[in-house]
Structures are given as structure tokens and as C-alpha cells.
Amino acid sequence: MSIFERYLTLWVGLCIVAGVALGHVFAPAFQLIAAAEIAQVNLPMAGLIWLMIVPMLIKVDFAALGQVARHWRGISVTLLINWLVKPFGMALLGWIFISQLFRPYLPADQIDSYIAGLILLAAAPCTAMVFVWSNLTKGEPNFTLSQVALNDTIMIVAFAPIVGLLLGLSAITVPWSTLTLSVGLYIVVPVLAAQLIRKALLAKGEAALSRFLSVLQPLSIVALLATLVMLFGFQGEQILKQPLVIALLAVPILIQVYVNSGLAYLLNRLSGEAHCVAGPSALIGASNFFELAVAAAISLFGFQSGAALATVVGVLIEVPVMLSIVAIVNASKPWYERGKAVRKVAAARGDTAFKA
Questions:
Q1: What is the pLDDT of residues 100-138, one digit of tens each?
Q2: Do 231 and 303 form a contact (C-beta atoms < 8 A)?
Q3: Do 234 and 23 contact (CB within 8 A), yes or no?
């Protein structure tokens, strides 16, 4: 893990401070940025988000889809968590905490927007940082690659319908035209562009791909930080007035991350999957493609919306929370593998009932 990735939460915190300060001092400049739109797409933000997303997608080899059958149990568990449990579970958590328990402490006019942001965050499985988490748990690299490629393929067709359904169930008006445009701009086109670039670079050899990514990756990081500065430049005033909002929005996100990762880990153990697959499966099931979530939230609801703020809270807590899950997965490996050993002994004896 690079120094930047290890201290992502610190950099995000600094961006919050910088954004709030700049937004207060240079309010007219931020208003000009917000006005640079075509068809509800903010052009400066779209450029930054492309710069964030494309390098991540270049790393994904869609040829890895041919390896899906080798780890069908781990793949099945992760798909269950990513596409059924996580988005629908977050909609429920959003209703419980944001719409009910925390309602008295949140701006009344932003309640629906906060829930929408949480749904967008949960409906986008992580693409890039998963490779870091998988490596830290000594995960099976072929499983991680094939799972990410499969998730990205599903996201092209499933992201908009799932988000639209859950927003509708939450009684939030669904801007279908903007949602469809966001999927095209921030999923379909970047995936195609990234794969064309990847193919062209690989034609020159693996070294050419590595060199290109080494140049582009720092630009991607700068784009992420610039996006956060802009977001908090627009959100600054309300954050200063209500700092409690960020802490309250973090509650359902934290619950979702720990519950989903734990469920994925246990299901893999029960299915007899190897620990090197269960670790990355749990981490993929817990983490989010927050770059996409931020982009969609801005397109659908605007810079100053509660939805945009909710997705940024996901960025704020991503690294420390995922590192804690990595630690749990690594520390519990002996327990996990004892369960597999017990099942093997029971299977050899023909037992049908045993304690894991």
C-alpha cells in the first residue's frame, strides 16, 4: 500500500479543511465552477472523475472472466452480498437511522438526499482499492481479478435499475434521464476507453502498461483530492453549522461494512472455500466504488446536496475501516481453517452433523 493510500483519511481531512476555507474565501469562483454545466453534467467535475476512474479500470483485465468458474463458491457469496444484501440493506439502514432515529438532528430538507447518497454508495462495488486489501490478506489474485471484472460487467447493466428501484422505494423522485446519462458517462464510456487504452499498451508489452499507470496514478490521486476540495467548498457552510451530520451519516455506513464483510466471511467458511478466497471476498463485499458514487450523486442531486456529502463520508472512513477488516481476517485465519479441517474430517467419516 502506498503512503497516500495508507493515510487517505488524513488527506481527506485536509481536503475538508481546505475546501471549507476556500469555499468561504472564494465563493464567486466556486459558483462559476458550479455553473459550468451541459445537460446537468458539470464539466470540470466530469473531467476530474474521469481522471479518477479510468486508471483504475485500466488495471482490470476482463479476460479474467474466464476464471470465474474456478472459484464459484467465493464468487457466488460476493455477488450475493454486492448485489442483493448491500444495496437493499443500506436502503433499510438509511430508513432506520437517517429517516427515523437521527431525523431530529439532521436538516429536514436533506433527509431524502442523505438516504439517496447512501444508496448510491452501496450500489457500487469497489474496483480499485480491493486489489490493495486482497494483497494485504494474501488473497488469491486470480479470484480478486475475476471478481472485480465480473462486478464491473454487472455494474454496466445493474447499477441504474437497482438505484432507481431503491430510490423509488424510498419515495425519492428518480431522475431517470440523468441517472442513465451518469451510467453512460461514468461506467460504460470509461470501461470502454480504459480497455482500449489497456489493449494498446499491452501490444507494446507489460512494461509499457506499468509505465503508463505509474504516470497516470498520481494524476488520479490529485483528481480525487481536487474533487473533495470542490465538494467541501460547496458544502462548507452547512458543515460548519452542523458538524454532527458527518458523524451521523457514518453510522449506517460503518454498520453496513462490518455486517457485510462478516456475513461474506462466514458464508465462505460454511461453503468450504479457502481462506485466500474468503478474505478478498469479504473485503469486496464490504467496500464501495466511492468515485462512481460521488459522480452519480453530483449529477443527480448537485454539488450542495446531502447525497454528495453522504458519499464523501464513505471516502472519509474507507481506509481505516477496511484496514480493521484486513486485521480481523488475518487474525482469524487459524479459526477459519479449523472449520475447514473439521468439515473434511466429518466428510471422510460420513457425518452429516458437526460443529464448525
A1: 999 999 988 899 999 999 999 998 887 767 777 888 888
A2: yes
A3: yes
